[in-house]
Amino acid sequence: MAAELEKWPAQEILPRLLANDVPAAPILSRFELLQDGQVQANHILEEYQSVVFGQVRQPRPAAQFDRTPASVRELAPLLGADNAAILSELGYNGAEIARLERERVVHHKPAHALRE
Fold this sequence. Notes:
This protein has helices spanning 2-5, 10-19, 30-35, 37-41, 83-89, 94-102, and strands at residues 45-50, 54-59. It is an alpha+beta fold. The chain has six helices and two strands. It has a two-stranded antiparallel sheet.
């Protein structure tokens, strides 16, 4: 089937698939996605404020429920943000954690350095 689909430009095959009730959708670039009517109508992308990156756009939770609404409470942590807490739970002390960071065994980069 894939070999047959590859013979057709998307703008020709997509209407034919949809006309025959075949679930189909185009593959969009990240810029096309921002302008997609369905993405905009369903408010799929929301904007959040990051202390490191400023305004950040990301998808809202996919499932939407009236009685138990989902929301983004905080943005995903930066790489290595939870290292010290996790290593402490595993029994490492502050000096050992500092050594692991210094020796680059675990990732450690201050948040302000990410903007550079």
